[in-house]
Amino acid sequence: MRQRRVLAWDAPNIDMTFSHLLGRRPAPSDRPDLRSLLRWLAARRDPGDEIEASVFVNVPPDRPQALQRWVAFLTSIGFRAFVRPKREDSDVDEAMVAYLRERAPEAKELIVGSNDAQRFVGPLQELASDGIAITVLGFVEFAGALAGTPSLTFVDLEDIPELLTVRLERIRLDNLPEEGQWFEPRISPEEALELARQPSR
User: Quick check: 47 pLDDT over 80?
Assistant: First the structure.
């Protein structure tokens, strides 16, 4: 009987998209509070369900100490951590897909934290066709087909209580009020003209 809810969190991808939203590299205090993610995951349980949560991480080989404390923190609050040295264009996606396929036979729900539609839509649709509930966590404006595929349930990260600790300036068109909504410019028209006058590099 399938009684396990399995979470796989694509840390490099979430971090990259978070950087785009912030307009800078996130500080440790900016990043999503993964303890809140565990609480959200636990709240989805039915009686008798087990939960398993894993974070997938790429570590720069020239400075492994940069993430050492964070990985130790993850394991101290109940996450498994898969850590791979970063080599040129290497990523953790293949390891994530392998992990999801391995866990699928005993999973009631697979939950994937990533915005990488190119890598995950196909495998997740395949798993959904086997009767597994698939939930994707991401930022709707970056998630592409992960947010629009009928066989996948999408949850925006900003809708998970207390997960995000910073205010993000976002343009979300998935939850507009019926009367419409204004989106204000992030720079003034004068600043835009000044940028336009500068020679391109």
Answer: yes
Phi, psi of 157, rounded to the nearest 5 degrees? -60, -30
Tell me how crowded residue 6 is: count the other CB atoms within 10 A of its CB.
Answer: 23
Phi, psi of 45 (to 5 degrees): -70, 145
Tell me how crowded residue 175 is: count the other CB atoms within 10 A of its CB.
10
DSSP-based three-state secondary structure for 185? coil
Q: What is the pLDDT of residues 72-107, one digit of tens each?
A: 999 999 999 998 888 776 678 899 999 999 999 999
Which uninterrupted H or E stretch holds 66?
A: helix 65-76
Considering just the CA atoms, what is the radius of gyration of the chain in Å? 19
For residue 131, pLDDT over 80 is answered with: yes
Domain ranges of the chain: 4-171
CA 136 to CA 160: how far, in whole Å? 12
Class assignment of domain 4-171? alpha beta
pTM tops 0.85, yes or no: no
DSSP string computed for 76-113: HTT-EEEEEE--TT--SHHHHHHHHHHHGGGEEEEEEE
- Give the pLDDT score at 98: 95
